[in-house]
Amino acid sequence: MQQYETHGNLEELTAFVAVAEAQSFVKAAGALGRDASVLSRRVSQLEARLGVRLLARTTRRVALTEVGSAYYQRVRSLLDELEMAGQEASDFAGSPRGLLRIALPMAFGRLWVAPLLPPFLARHPQIRVDARFGDRFVDLVAEGFDVAVRLGVLRDSSLTARKVASYRTVLVASPAYLARRGRPGTPADLADHACLGFTGHASWPDWLLAKDGQSHPVQPKGPLIADNSELLLLAALQGTGIVLAPEWLAGAALREGRLVEVLPGWAGQAEGGVYIVLPPGRLVPTKTRVFVDEIAGALPGAWAKDAQGASASPVPAP
């Protein structure tokens, strides 16, 4: 297929339609704010490209040829569609609307993002949300996601990321477990305890603990490992063992005394972050921008609120 320069072709088409409708190069030039000689040159270039005469020129007027009349109808429709598409794009950019596809971590998404979605949709009735929950790293571009929430330490990538909150990971157990098995005094003592392992930790099969600049790797051994952090927290609440859990998951149970921090001061070596990740590119649709702003405003410190400011515990009492 023969390739033309898009910008040049559009100028030629606009000039042709304006002259055809005004039946005069001078009048068309006045309507477009261009010089008549420029329009004449554009139309001549278009006719040369097509190899046909579109306009019959006389000293008094300009008229469409037979082929020019048929061509005008098609081009007029094309320019109308372009104008409509541009208007729709402007409207789309100016107000939040359309389908918003979101990728969310399983437990975090259910506990902290899912409750925000109904009021978000109520405020933005022209937005539809497709929320997908899972702990794998989705390919935003290949899988067509508008935004993702990711946890931990963000890997280097070409994606655009915004850190909206931080959290620690802490060792916790139920008072009943500690009464039965005793409290570990050092990270090394964990070898004698039932440790519950989350296989989704970046450091798995180790726990990398840190305190005051010291670091201590621990390889947890115990009756249960899982790729679901909510299951492990529930097991800890029921006295099964000790778990290394993020504050956003264990915070409510700690405040309520249903869990107790083990080895206070020792925590996961790397501070966790909550990131909102977007596909590469500088133009962010309005639907995405309003979602990012609302999530960023709601999440920071949500799991660190005191008992009066916090919502109900995300994990039911055993």
From TrEMBL:
Gene3D superfamilies: 3.40.190.290, Winged helix-like DNA-binding domain superfamily/Winged helix DNA-binding domain. It comes from Azohydromonas lata. Residues 9-65 form the HTH lysR-type domain. Belongs to the LysR transcriptional regulatory family. Keywords: DNA-binding, Transcription, Transcription regulation. This is LysR family transcriptional regulator.
